[in-house]
Amino acid sequence: MKKPIISAIFILLLASCGFSNYFPDRILVKFKPGIVAIPAGTSGVSAQNISASSVNDLNLKYNAIKTKKAVPNAKTPPTKIKSLYAGKTIEVPDLSQLYKISFPKGTDIEKVLPDYKNDPNIEYAEPDYIVSAFMVPNDPGYALYQWDLVNIGMPDAWNVTTGEASSVLVAVVDTGVNYTHQDLAGKVVLGHNYINSSTPNNPLDDNGHGTHISGVIAADTNNNTGIAGINWNARIYAVKVLDHDGFGTISDTAAGMTEATDYGIKIINLSLGDSSFSQAFADAVNYAYANGTLVVAAAGNENTSSPVYPAALPNAFSVAATDQNDHRAVWGSSVSSNYGPWVDICAPGSDIYSTWLGVDQYQFKDGTSMATPHVSGLASLLISRNPNWTPDQLKSRIETTADNIDAINPGFSGKLGWGRINASRAIGIPKAEISSPKSEDYIKGIVPIIGVADSIDFNSFTLWVGAGPQPLSYNPFFTGYVDTVNGTLGNFDSRTVSDGIKTIKVSVTNHEPFTVEAKATVIIDNTSPKTIILSPAQGATVEGVISIIGWATDANPDYYLLEYSKDNTNYLKINSSTAPVGNDELGKWNTEGLNGNYFLRLTASDRAQNRSVTTIEVKVTSSSANAVSISGVSRITPNPFDPRTQGQAFLSYTLTQNSSVNIYLYNISGGLIWQKQFNAGEEGGRAGLNLAPWNGQNLGGEIVDNGVYLYKITAQDGGGKRVLDSGKIIVFKN
Fold it and tell me: Which of the ends of the chain has fewer CB neighbours closer than 10 A, N or C?
């Protein structure tokens, strides 16, 4: 009896990298009026001669090979014609002055361009950028529902390829395919129907599973209808081996796989499997592999690490499922994507929107069945560009360009294969990123540039700096030949350029060649703030409340801090501000209660963390040194106080002048349980309102018991300590 197998049952945005690609070894130049290019003749110069000698000098300097009209049929306007169009007057440009200048292979266009841009005989010079259709398809379901294609980087991949014109066939060995569907019509080659012998050549889907898979791979795309397929030009080779309930046999599946292999198909999608090893299955997979066919198989949905076949076979490519957050897909308490060391790769498999039964029907489905065609579709894009690639080459490219997701799947490290597929990287688009410094950061000195310069076919990367937020030109300061991921790309010495806004750029190139860029616009500030104390002057004698006048300025100010100290070590704050001060008041200093020599210190810092410090020494005399007192009555709040829930109680009092203050706290029996000293001029000992905190603990750091406690405030005056006030506080712990 044939052993039944079950389909991997269907229990079943935007992080695109900035892509700037230009034609290598060539620039576009528009000459100013009157400048002409003439054939080289016998001059020995392979490039055309230009009537402007300065341009010829540049061509010789950079070994230009050829100068050629960019728009061969463009005619010079007889005069500066102005045309009225749509109510606007516009000047008709002279495209006959636009030329392509070619250079030897490997010429660094970024180094060539600035000289041509600055030449007085050239109107403008720029790279010959490669343009393409912006490959965001117009299928309505794509924008609304196909998160999965955005997740794997298809928009960027489509900018490179949507599948070559010589379409690739992908075999879907499954429940058949609804080849009458509006998004699949004309894209399906009919293989064998192994379920119904009366219609052997009609693999029409009567379940929906195979049709859903086929839409993910190859739905008709950019047709204003339905959904987008991964490979716009791929076709499906439909083989029916599962019945209308999704069941079939290993023998029929092996037959269908062999049929597809013999037909010359290079990719077989198997969204089906069983938990038991079958040698027949292994033979069918090995037959396909030996003939250059990649078998992509679903890992199953039983929430187990036990192997599922054929996915776990050595020559199959096993696919687990992920959700919108790159977590292992979970669809129920016991229904989740399988996992284990036998899994090779992951792909989206939750809420996948694709084609269904009926001419215009679509449905959301879940499962590793839905993850598998994402891998098959990507493999078909790769094989369309590299028709001679082996199954191992296809598999290796997809694996080594995947995004590792172990960190966001704790407990499954090493059990989700190489990670979630990344189509843009697999196609070969480099990755460029500057993670530090970030745009709008303030920097100074030597700054490490941290980021990513990586590609599957990596060649090199270059770091550049340009003036302003949108530089007209860049200067290189480092070139690297080793791909780097989340590491130091190079060091930038910001002292080699002037202060101000600059743009740092990394350009990453591979051997295709593709060039991708990333930028960060920063503010360079290597200039320290200006700090001056004008008044009082060094050595001056002061008393009472004085205004301190001076400067604390910078192009990018952060803050300034004004302080005083008796010993030039322990400083107390007078004032601080984030606003710069130029020849104006920095703060008021109340010197009442202070006597002797004191130091005034002004510190200013800017946003690049440059700092300046100015210190002077003055002499303080006080005519009211013995007049310290509390104005009004001291208060403590909250009272009653629960230190476990309220944290701190604050004793508030107002001093008539700066003074050293001691606060004592006693229990009802007169035992000292806590005390605190404040120096003259600091919070707790300065003229004006003071707030002295108590955390409810005794001298040993333990929270005191419930009860009534007495406080006493003393201050230092000319004759010694004097009691200023006293009161009580109730501690009540609920």
Answer: N
